[in-house]
Amino acid sequence: MNEMEKNFNLVAVVLLGFCILISSNSCNCAHNNENGSSSGVPMSRPAPPATVNVGVLLAFNTTIGRVARKAIQLALDDVNNNISVLNGTRLVLNIMDSNCSAFIGTSAALQLIKRNNVAILGPQYSVLAHIISYVTSELHIPTLSFGATDPTLASYQYPYFFRIAHSDFYEMAAVAAVIGSYEWRNVVAVYIDDDYGRNGISALSDALRNVRSKIYHKEALPPGASKSDIGSVLVQLALMESRIFVVHMNPDAGLNLFSEALYLGMLNSGYVWIATDWLSSALDSAILDYDTMNSLQGVISLRRHIPVSDKEHDFTVRWNNLHKAGSVDARLNAFGYYAYDAVWAIAHSIHTFISEGGIVSFTEYPQVSSASGNKTELAKLKVFDEGPKLLKILSQTNFTGLTGPVKFDNKGDLIGSSFEIINIVGTGYRKVGYWANQSGLSVTPPEIRGSNSHAIHSVGQKLYDVIWPGENKLVPRGWALPNNGKHLVIGVPRKVGFQEFVKVEDNNMFDGFCIDVFVAAMNLLPYAVPCTFVAFGNGITNPNYDELVQQVALKKFDAVVGDITIVTNRSRFVDFTQPYIEAGLAVVAPLREKNSSGAWAFLQPFTVEMWCMTGAFFIVIAAVVWILEHRTNPEFQGQRKKQALTVLWFSFSTLFNAHRENVESHLGRTVLIVWLFVVLIITSSYTASLTSILTVQELLPTINGIDSLTGSNVPIGYPAGSFIKNYLMEEFNIDESRLISVDSSASYAKALSRGPSKGGVAAIVDTLPVIQLFLSTQCSFSMVGPEFTKGGWGFGFPKGSQLAIDMSTAILTLSETGDLQRIHDKWLSQNPCSSQANQVDATQLRLRSFRGLFLICGVAAFAALIAFLGRTIWQFIRNQRDTGIGERPASFSHKVCSFLYFIDQKERKKDPIDTSGT
Q1: 3-state SS assignment for residue 900
Q2: Is the pLDDT of residue 8 over 80?
Q3: What is the spatial distance between Cα 589 and Cα 604, in angstroms, rounded to a whole number?
Q4: Alpha carbon 23 to its chain's center
């Protein structure tokens, strides 16, 4: 790989000139094979060729190359010995060695193209595939690779490139799924710095976003990096917070990396190492020595999944027999299966191509010939005339090989992909699960899940237990504090006032509510976190809290602790923990004495609704009593004017129990008793409320809330150094000239007491905990209106810090156990005066407090009226019958008038119903 990287620039220059040369008139590149077939003369099918050449480009002296070369030879024998394939035409493979060099590989590829190969099997590496795919696409020669897994190769940029192995796009999705299943959030990626490494890690970054994780740090190693270079890189990685490492490189560099990691103690408990399929290929291809296996203990690797089948079993047995006989010097790995299927894919396509009358012919590329005058080696490169036809046939490939169904998508990638997740333990490895692009993680093989949909739901998205580095069976946290002997530097604001929250002594002693909460949460962490508090500010004025938070982003502080409100612009610089106290914004203002002894003070005990309802019931009850007593009680009879005055007098005299009219009927007495009870309750309540209004001093705030502040021009106070100034200016359009900073309880009281007329403020806007603490000792002020924002205080940590997550969990634990409330009560307990002085709203008697009484009285009056009406109707009918009037025909209106006249008359003794019972 190092030789490949050294020659990459030279190859790029050579091919750039080549591409410019052959692309100058690319619009005329087709149509060279058109002949006179349009003449209408029937043409006979051409005889099939005796042989068809296919080029093979491998890196012989590599783990994959050794296995692939033998697998290709076995496939070639099987194809040529199968009489149903190629119809007697023999497949000839021209195999060349790229020697792990981009330059040599490019030269070998050009040699293969000059030999009139209809297709090229390979190349093995992604770097070389990028280079030669430009040439093969221009010359219409399909390229089928079994080892170039760079996801960017699956593109419309390379229409003649096919890949029979799974792209790294799917492998990185599998890696991300494993990381997401353990809820690890930050990952360190270590990779080889070439197209294969860079593009693979780019795919990993995209896949991690889907599981809400990210690459915390990328570390690229140059091809051919020495052990000392790798060791230097690992030393720097060991100082990072993340303990999740994804390794994506070639086997030689990868094994050297794990050897150095073991030496540096990075394979101990707490670390997680995930290797891509390069490691499983190395394990499958050879028996590694003890030291190498010892450096891989606890590592997770992905292994390309080959479904179990009869074909796979027979080929594996055949390979093992050859290995035992010494005919094969390497053990079989997944790329051997892919190489075998690649030969068969080419063979099937050529078979169809010949069967459909395809002709194997090549034509000089006119642009190259005319530019070079047939005097250069480039002029020997020819276009495969019917390459587009073979391309179309190859794209429709559909057969079952050793690796399962072989079909390509519209980008030339193999459809369907699955991987095994293996855990290296002892002298081998154990499978802990599978991943498939259609069903995700499971402990069930994908082919079983595909045939049994119930299996997907029964197993769920799980893996078997993993033995992690250090023989640890517990799932690692995935991060740790850097083991560099340094303490975390915690920034703390040096406040001027309200030191109950944060107090900084001259001898660098720190105390207060916020400090106690932080220390209590730290003590709940399952690991030790040494830290040192450092004061921020001069102690003369409050520091700027936005600047304090930015010190974390500038890496001057590892965290910040204090009464720091969680707001949007600060969250851009740090990750906040769960809020440990609610801290919405509110308004505090001075109180003024309410004038309750005015001329109309007697009306204040009742609300308007209560006065209206009481007056209405006085009249209604009087009318009901008059109706019940009118026919039988002489005191409720007489002239209309007299009766009206009697009703009004009776109504209001019941208030003082001074009515002189006697109530004779039982129904009237029942209604009157209920009404007198209601009157008693109302008068007693009125008396008590009026006494309170006239004798108890009431205080009202001078400001009603934030709305009255925004609608006026009075000065407003805010805590110095906080975000509140900018918030009021941006959200409420309050002019900066109206805002005055205050920084202590004494300055709060002084500014509010002076008021706007004496250089003070009309109100102060601050967070709720500060206002509550201030009011606990200042009873002449009050919080007015509700909180107009919701928020809280939190501790700030660097972006992506796992410590912020663990501290949030610790804060929730403090809240659930009651420890958080006990810390609150220790520092922020309120004085009783605050709860007494803030009762400023006048207590009026409202209608809702007497709805039950009015309901009872109304029901009693209505029931009495119904009973009276029934009795009277009965008397009216009997009277009509006795006098014979009812036998005469009369209209309905006449009967109604008669009934009303009957009610208005005095009840006579001879009426059929005894009136003594009324």
Answers
A1: helix
A2: no
A3: 25
A4: 49
Residues in contact with 550: Cβ distance below 8 Å, sequence separation at least 6, in sequence order = 573
DSSP secondary structure string, 761-789? -SEEEEEHHHHHHHHTT-TTEEEES--SS
By C-alpha distance, which of 227, 218, 222 is closest to 264? 227
> What is residue 221's predicted lDDT score, i.e. its pLDDT?
95
Measure the CA–CA gap between 132 and 139, rounded to whole angstroms. Answer: 11
Q: How many whole angstroms separate alpha carbon 504 and alpha carbon 537?
A: 10
Task: Give the C-alpha distances (Å, rounded to integers) separating 523 from 132, 530, 531, 786, 811.
Answer: 61, 11, 12, 36, 11
pLDDT tens by residue, 802-837:
899 899 999 999 999 999 999 999 998 765 554 444
Name the helix (H) or strand (E) containing 624: helix 608-629
DSSP string, 672-735: HHHHHHHHHHHHHHHHHHHHHHHHS--EEES--SHHHHHTS---EEEETTSSHHHHHHHHS---
| Among candidate residues 796, 772, 718, the one with its CA nearest the CA of residue 492 | 796
Q: Supply 653's token pair.
A: 């005299």
pLDDT band of residue 3 (cuts 50, 70, 90) is very low
Q: Tell me how far apart the terminal alpha carbons of the chain are, to the nearest angstrom.
A: 118
CB neighbours of 848 closer than 8 A, spacing ≥ 6? Answer: none
Residue 58: name the closest of 70, 47, 74, 49 by CA: 70
- Residue 628 pLDDT: 77
- At residue 599, the pLDDT reads 73
pLDDT at 710: 86
Return the DSSP state at 44: P
Closest of 466, 523, 526 to residue 802, by C-alpha? 526
pLDDT for 597: 57
Query: Are 208 and 176 spatial neighbours (Cβ–Cβ below 8 Å)?
Result: yes
Return the closest-CA partner of residue 592 out of 748, 699, 704, 705.
699
Cα Rg of the chain (Å, integer): 47
Contact 423, 463 (CB under 8 A): no
* Those residues with Cβ within 8 angstroms of residue 841's Cβ, 6 or more apart along the chain or in another chain: none
Contact (CB, 8 A) for 121 and 343: yes
Report phi then psi at 719, rounded to 5. Answer: -70, 130
DSSP code at position 361: -
Q: How many other CB atoms sit within 10 Å of the CB of residue 212?
A: 9
**pLDDT tens digits along 625-656:** 777 776 676 666 666 676 677 777 776 677 66
pLDDT per position as a tens digit, 189-205: 999 999 999 999 999 99
Distance CA(274)–CA(423), nearest Å, equals: 9
